[in-house]
Amino acid sequence: MTIEVEGTAPSQHEPVNIALAPWETRVLDIMNDLVGHGNGYVKSEGGISITHSGAPGAVLARMFISEPGKGYSAANSFIDPETTASQRWHGSGLRLKNLDGAKLEPVMTVRNTAPGLSRIQGRIIYTRSDGTTGTVDIPQKPVAAGKTKTFSMENLVKNLPSDATYGGIELEYDTPNGTVVTSVQSISQNGDHVFQVPMFDPQNMPSSAGGAPWKGESDNRTIVYIKNETDMSRNFIVHLKYDGGQYTPGIKEIKPRQTVAIDFQELRDRQIPDDMGSVIPLDIMTGQIAWSARGREAKTLSGRSEQISMYGGVVNTYSCFNCCENSTADTWINPQAAAIVREAETWFMANQTETNCYQQQYGPFVANVSMWSSTETDVATVSDGLVYGAGVGYSEIGATVPTVLWFHWGGGYCEPWYDEVYRHGSVEVVGVEKIQYKVGSTWTDIPSGGIGPVCNGTSVSFKAIPTSGSFPSSQPTWSGDASGNGVEKTVTFSTAGSRTVSATAGNSVSTMVNVGPANANITLTWLAPAVTTNTGSGQSTASAAPFVPEYIACADLGTNEWKLRVKKVEAKTNITIYTGGFRDPSANPPISQTEAIDANTKMNAYYTSGVKQSWHTTAASEAHENYHNTEWTCTANHYWGPTETALELLKVSYASYNSEAAAITQIKAAATGADAKMAAFRTASLTYWGTLADNAASRPYAAGQIVLNGHISTIVTLAATNNWTGVPGVATANPNVANPCYQQFSAYNP
Predict the structure, then answer these.
(1) Where would you tag: which of 25, 337, 427, 538 has the fewest CB atoms within 10 A of its CB?
(2) What are the two backbone dihedrals, phi and then psi, of residue 581, each rounded to the nearest 5 degrees?
């Protein structure tokens, strides 16, 4: 091979011929080996040209440049001018600031191999933090024939926005294709970091897909740059594969001529999920980056990666391309099935995986969809994957998804086979059809009028029934006396009256619940005695009227029972007063001493004889019989407590009787039911009442005697007025009427 050097002092006398053995690698020093003057030096600008006798691609060459005193080093690749197809050079990832925000000096070195003057110009397209782009023009620069010139672009970028940290560079020249080669770098002020920008001919670029290693440990940062080489927006995708997983930020849009940067370390450290919800584990330090353009056109994007160590002062660039862009591997819709309520929304997405031309698979990720569709638009509509529940039922949700297969025919030529596939899932739009309630362990439809009366303080379990299928998670929502979410809900009712339970899943269904009053012990309702009079001369009487109970029943649905409750029990005494067979001293007082003596003697004898005498009063008889009423009252009140307890233990199956009235009828009629217990209550009370004395010197006669004592005293006064003598006074002044139920109560267990 022949190597020609330009830009040394002294100059190379003539090109050097070198012979390389098969597979040999040789390191050559410019001054010692190529110029032949070890004491000379390399100028600040120059170039090297190599020609060889082998087949195209048989020789690989790279030049390493260093200036240890400034900490500067860089590696430059050689370009075959015969492979160029245009008069342009492009590069992605031109850094304008270092990772720490320090300014960098962009430098462009241009070598003109044409026989005449060449003029070069271009532009820097930078990217702001919000994704928008801006452009800085690079003025035309002349480069003489056979010369190399270096141009600083520091002044061009010094007034850029503060958030413009990187961009792309595009250069064009006016001499024939391949006669100008360029090298672009951004150099830190201390020379520790040299950010080399690989330049390429945009009309002879490799595929728009590639890969690079990723390092994320310590202060190592790996930045991926993707540049759009066209004047229209494009799509691309980047993947990071690591041991145990994969991270794919998704398909991204890139604007015309824009350069974007992807920093997986930042995505890892901030735990930002990709579009499938995955994050990069914090302990992942290494991996493999893969990127590719998306679409049916080849060679639209360029890409590379850059590894930077701030503390190590190291910058590496990787510009590795695949044979073709990535091909679609599989496509499906996610979810396959979903359920929502009316007027609610849910997302569907199309997912894909892809493979590179070496059959390495990446994904899944969210695919672009050219059209969404719904087979039943009265049930569900869809826009950009967002499904809206319009009405109950089922609908197929379809996505038409672009796919592409790339065929590599060799020689850098790839051909796409573009298609669209239809993938679908289903959505069920669910509403509340009805509410059921639980009787024991059985779910039962609620009647149109609601349920109840429900026992106050008991719980009822409700279940919402969907119009079809099943409810989505956390549906329906409950309101009224119920609250929360879910298909089933148990409600404890502690407020009497008409209550409401509603279930809502798009639509609402409500049911009424009649809640009975809080259960409390009642007392007998005593009516005034029913008094009748009889002009005959018989003995007055007092008898117990039948008890008149009023019942309600309430449902304890958890135990499947109608339970009896006593609302009211009326009780009274029937009294008959005989008004004949005696002379009433108040209406017909004695008119003589003899009559006065007889009247008081007879009235004093009422208590001691236990017999109504010929001198008597209706009021005394009423006092006697009213005392019997008092006895009956305290007797029945005593036996009522256990009777009420026994009555309210009575119950029948709720499922067997469809109404409160039917349940009460059955509870009353049973052999040991309410009627039987009330009869036992009456029997026990009458039996005890019968043990209370009603004879001479008993309490009922004492009550009557107290009334007669008033009349005796009146006659004594009358006698004194008339100077009658021998008229007796009150014989029994204070007869005992205390403790009407004085006998010991017998045991009673109804």
Answers:
(1) 25
(2) 85, 10
* 532, two tokens: 């009748």
**Cβ–Cβ under 8 Å, residues 454 and 365:** no
Do 507 and 432 contact (CB within 8 A), yes or no? yes
Task: State how far the alpha carbon of 205 is from the alpha carbons of 88, 200, 321, in Å.
Answer: 11, 7, 10
Residue 197: pLDDT over 80: yes
- Say if residue 454 is exposed, middle or buried (CB neighbours under 10 Å; 0-12, 13-18, 19+): buried
573-578 and 386-389 strand pairing: unpaired
Beta bridge partners of 154: none
Among 493, 667, 490, smallest CA distance to 564 is for 667
Question: In this structure, what DSSP letter does residue 101 have?
Answer: S
The span from the CA of 707 to the CA of 688, in Å, is 27
Query: How far apart are alpha carbons 222 and 218 in whole angstroms?
Result: 12
**pLDDT for the residue numbered 683:** 97
- In Å, the largest CA–CA distance within the chain is 184
| SS3 state at 236 | strand
Helix (H) or strand (E) run with residue 238 in it: strand 234-242
Radius of gyration of the chain (CA): 56
CA gap 63, 71 in Å, rounded: 17
Separation in Å, CA 457 to CA 29, 177, 438? 99, 94, 16
The yes-or-no verdict on residue 569 having pLDDT over 80 is yes
- DSSP per position, 28-71: --IIIIIIS-TT-EEEEEEEEEEE-SS-TTS---EEEEEEGGGT
Of the pLDDT bands very low, low, confident and very high (cuts 50, 70, 90), residue 66 is confident
* Amino acid occupying residue 105: E
Q: Parallel, antiparallel, or unpaired: how do β-strands 573-578 and 530-534 relate? A: parallel
What are the structure tokens assigned to 73, written together? 């080093």
Q: What are the distances in angstroms from CA 553 to CA 514, 640, 667, 674? A: 12, 19, 9, 12
Which parts of 134-281 fold into alpha helices (H)?
Answer: 154-157, 264-269
Q: Output the pLDDT for position 44.
A: 84
Please, which residues have CB within 8 angstroms of residue 601's CB and are 6 or more apart in sequence? 728
- Give me the amino acid identity at 395: S
**CA–centroid distance for 437 within its chain:** 26
Check: CB of residue 674 under 8 Å from CB of residue 668: yes
Record the tokens describing residue 663, joined without a space: 């349940």
- Crossing angle for the helix pair 699-721 and 593-609, to the nearest 10 degrees: 170
Token pair 């031109």 in the structure block, residue: 94
Tens-digit pLDDT profile for residues 586-603: 999 999 999 999 999 999
As separate numbers, helices (DSSP H) first and strands (DSSP E) second, the chain gives 7, 49
Helix (H) / strand (E) containing 663: helix 660-669
> CA–CA separation, 454 vs 450, rounded Å?
11
Are the C-beta atoms of residues 664 and 551 closer than 8 Å to each other?
Answer: yes
Structure tokens at 315: 């910058």
3-state SS class at 32 = helix
User: Cα–Cα distance between 529 and 544 in angstroms, integer?
Assistant: 10
Q: List all residues 6 or more positions away from 710 whose beta carbon is below 8 Å from its beta carbon.
A: none
What are the tokens at 330? Answer: 């599989």
- pLDDT > 80? residue 412: no
Q: Which residue has the tokens 């297969």?
A: 405
Residue 718 identity (one-letter amino acid): L
